[in-house]
Amino acid sequence: MSLVKVKGTYDVLSSEARRWQALETYVKAVFKKFNYQEIRTPIMEYSNVFHREDENSDMVTKETYNFEDKGGRMLTLRPEGTAGIIRSYIENKLYATNDLVKLWYMGPNFRYERPQKGRFRQFSQFGVEVVGAMDPYLDAEVIQLAYEIIKGLSLKGVSVKINSLGDKASKQNYMKVLKAFLEPKKDQLSPDSQARLDKNPLRILDSKDPVDKELLKDAPLPLDHLSDEAKLNFEKIQEALALAGVEYKIDKRLVRGLDYYSFVVFEIQADIEGFGSQNALGGGGRYNELVESLGGPSKPGVGFAFGMERLLDALELEGIKMVDEPKLDAYFITFDETSKKEAMKLQSLLRKENISVDLNYSGKAFKGQLKEALAQNAKFLLILGENELNMGKINVKNTKTEFQELIDIKDLVINLKEMLHHV
Ligand code: HAM
Questions:
Q1: Which of 41, 47, 170, 182 could serve as 84's disulfide partner, Cβ 3.0–4.6 Å?
Q2: Using one digit for the tens of pLDDT, what is the confidence trace for 47-82?
Q3: Is 120 in the pocket of ligand 1 (CB under 6 A)?
Q4: Domain encompassing residue 232
């Protein structure tokens, strides 16, 4: 039996890894511009970090990987970053030294979902969590950050959707109203929506089922059930977004897949041909009760996360290249043991000067070695045989111009540096 990867996972091979690296470098630079600091938390947490009384989402109740370790502790592979980061915020008392913490993170998450295009069982997110202040300008900053990430990548078919669920009381009141509206239609709802009616009616609002959609046409909407405070908050966020130059649309049916949100929620959605139905590139919102629910002080929070696989897909579909073909500075071709030894020595001198260099290990004749050098995209060939070695010289060949010169081995580092400067 040949071994295969776990369902819903994937390997990142070298050419793809370069795209990942480019994306990672890019977003880190954006986070720096916005003055966010990195946090890294474990991939596994005690299950009760995610499994809480106030969290009834499918993601947590049905899709988590839970297991008992050998010490009988119940652990969960994180399905998202937020809850673990808040656990860490509380455990490390980050609130004691800073009124406001602005954190960014990046890493893998695990959800036992049905794999499809853009949906995996292990996937990567980067995101931010800002904890300690309730300020519409801050919400706007977080949305602006998400927007800047997309804009800076030159993605076109992407839009920011925002909505407000209101404060805790407005949200709970709205859920009652929605439930009352749906109860008489219960039998006609899709099985998924029927199951959600009691525990999680909000999620029914963005059901993709055509029958549900029809039934929901005249459904009451969260925005029409906001308290005055929540209404004002949403208006101020929009005002601040306009000041920050963020383009957005209000999507009155936008709800999110986790229960911890109140007030503003938002999503960055792709409308790109060929993208598939999993079109949320990223999403987030405010969570003012989560810190307390995890046993911490009363501190409001807001954040978002992007799915990196989906973002890379979007970039590919829009033909946006973040990386050039990799190039190697120099490649040694040798013909015998003595010249190989010399090359070995020279390699480390060159690398000390930040010159990337490789050596042929195939033992093939010149032609074979040359082929491999070209496949590696080497800018220069460093050809070293018995004759050259006897003269204390080495042949340096520019693979593009094919110009070749014989130089003193002792001058190789300085000369090659100069030559690389000019290519
Ligand atoms: P989420 O909407 O569940 O939010 O996930 C954020 C993003 O992760 C999605 O928009 C999507 O791009 C990506 N994603 C989610 N599940 C998968 C999957 N199975 N395969 C591939 N990509 C996936 C959260 O996780 C919240 N923690 C965001 C947040 C942070 N809210 C406040 N702070």
A1: 41
A2: 999 999 999 888 999 999 999 999 999 999 999 999
A3: yes
A4: 14-167+227-317
